[in-house]
Amino acid sequence: QVQLVESGGDLVQPGGSLRLSCAVSGLTVNSYSMGWFRQAPGKEREFVAGISWIIGNRYYADSVKGRFTISRDNAENSVYLQMNSLRPEDTAIYYCNIVQGASPAFTSWGQGTQVTVSS
Length: 119
Hints:
Layout: E1 3-7, E2 11-12, E3 18-25, E4 34-39, E5 46-51, E6 58-60, E7 68-73, E8 78-83, E9 92-100, E10 103-104, E11 113-117
Parallel strand pairs: 2-11
Antiparallel strand pairs: 1-3, 3-8, 4-5, 4-9, 5-6, 7-8, 9-10, 9-11
């Protein structure tokens, strides 16, 4: 059974940084493309970043390009999202999932982790 457990969210000031973690069980992260999504209050869940399983190509939503970096640790079987230069509009619950392109490929979601960017 696949389980995705996100952590690392916090309250941070604009311009600050956070590193989110996604601990994965039930599959190995280097055998699947993995990604991050977010959902802000009153909005649809949206794609943020992805890392392909074959050679680890990274790709991002335009809104976070140049500020966020996705990575994975095969030994820890985890996926990470380093977020720099955070803005109030980055406030959302962040989730990880298996991805196909920019779409989630696994129907079950973890609990997510709350990121709040505010002064």
